[in-house]
């Protein structure tokens, strides 16, 4: 995958400390796409910084030794004012998690989630390969904030981030040493309760039960945060909340890494400000490579949007929430006009059904049933019961599993029905579109696609 | 909003293996989906059904059905 970022930077400006002082060499013609925070090293010279270069670029972390550095609660207050939200899909306020873990009884554990299970997203792997020290700084800051005794970085077995993260770890001595845990490469294994379960029992399966913040790994209070969230935390600890809010919107502050794929000229990972309209994000990736009909935003738990809706829509939690949609994982897949959204959705659902942990009945049986309905719909099977049966199943499955996997899959299916409403009607009437059997655009692991 | 306060029933979706006894013992609140797994009505158990709900929870072969204090 090509890696490109949104702005070119003057290389001599980069040695002078805080990146807020850096001015772009070439002003990007696209507003919201000028911000380069996490990927500065890559933008500068196309490779990751070692620890010395990293400290020259960003400055050193403030002291994280008890009694020397900023008081813990003041650090958490600063994160609260910054309005940092999780970058793993749910967008949960990071300060609330920090507060809950810090307040819980017992020695805390920090779990950095770098699994990046969603096949539409490669931003976490990119971040760990291009700015590994920023992630490790973030883990150190989180450990300090919640007074953690242990820290674990979770990566999938065979992850491209294993080697760069190991190499970066070898260059540092953090107050709390970071262990790397290799998690089985299953989609639901990277869900937060599954990680906690894996680190406690060795089984990478979601669980019901108390929140990780209260009773997580081995019963200890546990902070589970996405690696990009932690990288932002490292910058807030250095430059403060006001700096952080110089990018983004009131309710979705800061920048975010965004994976852009599908029918665009330069698919890749880009750093953008929250608030960038989706059409501008596509422009950043060189624009459409052929005429588009829709985009999938937010990964496999996200949503399809017809281009007419997506174009002007700003990429923020609040703008999506106003439409009743989750923003999800920051990823966009552009679907060309000559493709079948129903067939694409059917493939996604088959993958998600296959990736059920098989623990909860409504997920174990409901997802394959819905996937099968969608496959029949995609094939243009004339079946008068089909749409009614599908609607009923979509209504009955959500909220009945231990984790959010079934809800996310069902949500994706339900939103596909409205995004491709005309196509759905035609398919149901026995008139499938001619693109249904084409090569898929949604990136899925091979065995399911 | 429900008219009642007090205990409500819940099911542990991992423990549940679709025996279906609960829907027989408490059809007023529990129905089964097409795969035999229980769908629970929202809100607290009406007072008149509390004893029945308790019996249903006790009868669950996998102890997946629980009556919680409200």
From TrEMBL, chain A:
Residues 342-387 form the NADH-ubiquinone oxidoreductase 51kDa subunit iron-sulphur binding domain. InterPro entries: ComplexI_51kDa_subunit, Nuo51_FMN-bd, Nuo51_FMN-bd_sf, Nuop51_4Fe4S-bd, Nuop51_4Fe4S-bd_sf. Its cofactor is FMN; [4Fe-4S] cluster. One of its GO terms (molecular function) is metal ion binding. Keywords: 4Fe-4S, Flavoprotein, FMN, Iron, Iron-sulfur, Metal-binding. GO terms for biological process: cellular respiration. Belongs to the complex I 51 kDa subunit family. This is NADH dehydrogenase subunit F. The lineage of its organism: Bacteria, Bacillati, Actinomycetota, Actinomycetes, Pseudonocardiales.
TrEMBL record, chain B:
GO terms for molecular function: 3 iron, 4 sulfur cluster binding; metal ion binding. Its cofactor is [3Fe-4S] cluster. Keywords: 3Fe-4S, Electron transport, Iron, Iron-sulfur, Metal-binding, Transport. PANTHER family: FERREDOXIN (PTHR36923). This is Ferredoxin.
